[in-house]
């Protein structure tokens, strides 16, 4: 175990080296205020930067299987990332990953462990007791977490509270599909009840699929239920996508924030690639708060809604972890990663009275892909006509916007992200356009 810790890849700037030496001299061993898992995710970079620029020593971890796919990890290149650790993958067996993490926590001192991916979250939940002997997890308590990670249960609770929820039917096998389609109609969305499932061979992240024909629906249900996990067949809603982010603890809301996504990747939704901070809409602001209180979901949560064609909001899901879009909140003045840290560490939590409305953030790689997909998915429900999409993609450069990864005080991650994006776009665009020919 020691060997693998010592051999791992690391990136340190001279400034970080100096700070680290001071920390080591003072404590006898390295102590991090936070260890940020899932380093490849955008929200992990945002977290490292938020905490790091406050002078807090922080380090990041990514699993080897993701590093293999592309060796570029923007978070590892941040001037504030004191150390970059590469842990064994957990998709096939969680044991080596958990061993590595426990050893790392024993060898260093870590106050708070922050995770943002559905997969890592699933692993941490399974080993919560052992971990909590060593570190504070920036996660809600288990009953609330279990509720939030099950979309069916979340929607049932929301319905009881009077929130709008999409008309939907739960399906366990493809034999139940025909009856469900008669009830819901087409187009529809096939949505996994849980985003992460442990199959017989390995764990995997499942994503929603838009279906327009019975054949497409059958294929999607076959694929998503192959590990025995149920799915929801939901009515398709075509309106605005809005999300409310909250920091809730001790019966109080410390921060509230809202954003809408003009474009998402994939076009159905998932990751918002062009988004804007907005004033808290009264309807979903109150609904999100009521739901989070009822769930007793402490810490950070992002409550996602989508409106129908006449503007009525419907609940999509509740994410009980930092979401990829969180930087738009941080730039608007709501530093959720820091608030999350304060809450997890048992510190006094700063109350955020308000934020700047109207700021745009753009994730250029995702935006390029989504624009390309308007050509390959032309004519499907909710997909902007390609010519309009291309025009908007270009003219949106005229609107002042922040760009994911770009921070003038911390430039190295953006170069790493560009190299990574070129690699990935070459593969993805090649795949998308080969479908056309
Ligand atoms: N019933 C639906 N109608 C229209 N869009 C939907 C529907 N369900 C999901 N979506 C879109 O897909 C995105 C992803 O769905 P979500 O439930 O949030 O699952 P995930 O866990 O993949 O984020 C949503 O943000 C939304 O934009
Ligand atoms: Mg979502």
General description of the model:
The protein is an alpha/beta fold and 437 residues long. It has three domains: 2-137, Rossmann fold (3-Layer(aba) Sandwich), CATH 3.40.50; 167-235, ATP-grasp fold, A domain (Dna Ligase, domain 1); 241-362, D-amino Acid Aminotransferase, Chain A, domain 1. 41% of the residues lie in helices and 23% in strands. The protein has a seven-stranded mixed beta sheet. Strands 3-2-1-4-5 form a five-stranded parallel beta sheet, sandwiched between helices. Strands 6-11-7-10 form a four-stranded antiparallel beta sheet, with helices on one face. Helix 15 runs antiparallel to helix 16 and helix 15 (364-376) packs parallel to helix 17. It is globular, with a radius of gyration of 21 Å. 46% of the residues are buried. It binds adenosine-5'-diphosphate and magnesium ion. The site of magnesium ion has 3 residues, from strand 16. Magnesium ion is lined by residues 304, 316-317.
Features:
437 residues, Rossmann fold, Dna Ligase, domain 1, 7-stranded mixed β-sheet, 5-stranded parallel β-sheet, disordered N terminus, binds adenosine-5'-diphosphate, binds magnesium ion
- What structural class should be given to the helix and strand makeup? alpha/beta
Query: What's the overall average pLDDT, rounded?
Result: 92
Order of adjacent strands in the largest pleated sheet: 16-15-12-13-14-17-18
What is the correct CATH architecture of the largest domain? 3-Layer(aba) Sandwich
| Ends distance | 49 Å
CATH topology value of the largest domain: Rossmann fold
Text of the CATH class of the largest domain: Alpha Beta
Number of helices: 17
Helix content: 40-55%
Q: State the low-pLDDT regions, or none.
A: 1-16, 19-26
**Largest sheet geometry:** 7 strands, mixed
